[in-house]
Amino acid sequence: MQETHYLVPDQIKGEEKNLEVAKSASDIEEAEDWFVEAKERLWYVNHWKQAGQSSCFHFCLADNQGNILNRKPRKGDHIRIAKNDSGLVKGEEQDLFIVEALEYDDYPDENKESFAIHLSPVKSFLISGLNTIPEPVDRFTITLVIVRDNRILKALYHGRNEFGHLEIAAEEARIEKDNSSWPGLKDEDWQGLLKWFMDGK
Questions:
Q1: Exposure pattern of 74-92 as b/e (b: 16+ CB <10 Å)?
Q2: Is 118 part of any domain?
Q3: CB-CB contact of 38 with 197 (8 Å)
Q4: I need a surface site. Which of 3, 46, 108, 138 has the fewest CB within 10 A?
Q5: What's the number of domains the chain is made of?
């Protein structure tokens, strides 16, 4: 059974998605080193890269006015996204998520540690380009987690109360290659990002 971080809320309505990338180290010391590296990649939003072949996104950390922040995220910061990696110009990227929580936990008795970022989409992102407003928007969350359990390292995605028509909108935007404000993150894109957290490539 896939483990769920305590920041992940209850599933109430819509889709529940759990994605995972895992690998096993040769010893505890190697696993601890891997955890530190993966945690830092997750923590530095401005360095996020997409490994999915069908996407090319550039993420950045910003304040609520859209000003780019060159630091680690804090509660209340925004994560913005542009559809390509040619550079970010203020106003051309899409406001995507709000950072709701960041948590590091260490369980020495279990030889286990974790780092998580809990996100909620901004309302304008949820409704842009859609004919109807998804309900309940306040319950749609994403939690990204790096966890080391002894020699096992995992990168996890927990989506709760997601909405299927957002996935359809993503596919339509890809096919049409238009200027839709939907950035087009699909499961394969999140999977690619998890792999990048783990391996840096």
A1: eeebbbbbbbeeeebeeee
A2: yes
A3: yes
A4: 108
A5: 1
* Paired residues of 84 in beta bridges: none
User: Are 96 and 72 a contacting pair, CB within 8 Å?
Assistant: no
Domain that holds residue 84: 15-199
d(CA 167, CA 174): 11
Q: Is residue 8 part of a domain?
A: no
For 5-35, b where at least 16 C-beta lie within 10 A, e where not — what string? bebbeeeeebeeeebebeeebeeeeebbebb
| 3-state DSSP of 116-141 | EEEEEECHHHHHCCCCCCCCCHHHCE
Tell me the pLDDT tens digit for each residue of 4-34: 788 888 887 777 889 999 999 999 999 999 9
In a domain, 78, yes or no: yes
pLDDT value of residue 84 = 57
Give the pTM.
0.79
Task: Please indicate, yes or no, if residue 3 is contained in any of the structural domains.
Answer: no
Quote the DSSP letter at residue 45. Answer: G
Residue carrying structure tokens 């279990």: 110
Round the CA-based radius of gyration of the chain to a whole number and report it.
17
